[in-house]
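note to self: dont lose this again. the chain is below, predicted strucutre after it. 360 aa total, dont forget to put it in the shared folder this time
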Amino acid sequence: MRSFPNIRYLIPVFLLTLILGSGCQDIYEPDLRVDQGLLVVEGLITTGSGPHTIRLSYTGVYGEGRHRRPVRNATVTITDSGGAETQLWDIGTGEYLTPGSFSARVGESYVLHIVTADGEEFRSSPQEVPPQVRLSNVDAITGSDFQYFRSGVSDRLYQREFAGKHLYIETDSQGKGPARFRFRTNLLLQYTLSADKGSAPPPIEYCWQYREITNLVRRDVSRPESNRIRTAFIPRHAEYMQFYNFPPRRYASPRVVIMDLYSLNEESHYFYQKKHEQLSDEGHIFDPIAAQLPGNIECISNPEIQAIGLFEASSVSRHGFRIIMSYSEDSAEITTWEETEDIPTQGCLEEERPPFWIGG
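---
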């Protein structure tokens, strides 16, 4: 007969192991500072024409039941590396605008300086403007993507896969590594309407829809290890446009993709890279620990006061591409599209094609 050790002798061993194990744990109590509002800076100046916007707000205080509050009556200036100072205009909503004639210059460094109404002074680290991102190749390949939709019967979310074209860009290297940039992608679609208004023949309306689709790519910053990155996914069928907040229409091919590329210096690229890592976390054991993003704003009047956010100085370039959706082959025909400026988000013209209309 098999014998087992007496359980009375195992209990002390178990308790000793538990005590020793708990003695190796350190309790971490983060300083959340939920009783005070922190200054939040969202600032971007580019090589494009102004005005450029600096947004200032305070974080909500725990228990107040409200979100961020705009910072009003602050004095906001931008100083370049040559000492020239530009005063920003307070429009009263927490937004401060540069003059329309102001634009950043490649190779120059800029410092943002803020003095709040209560006398606290904040300053950014110097931000050098890097050169524009240069494209070396653009291509599209057939594939599939997925999006979530809400059931019409229950309140649950479901995942749906659909076919389309993945649009990739390749950039020239920057120094010894891949170019550093972030991007914003828009999709332009067109369609025609013919409504019978009692005349013969009925008038034709030439209509278009223009939407930003960056969020559906699920990444908006370049990869530190590669010069190639996906910047758009174009659905094959018109019914899938609902996932891009387009209304249900029969959209004519080709599609037009318009991309704004913002070159980033090392500090701002690090900020956007960490932002992407946090937003893409899925709670897995090896995901990075959520932490405050590494901003570039400090309080110089009182170092104990914390500020968050980013003042960014970038070169901006806009690129338009006409994508002819052909599914007989794995690739797509892509041509440069020059009409990229001043396109309203949507509209219709009766018996008149807009200047950016494609085809007959």
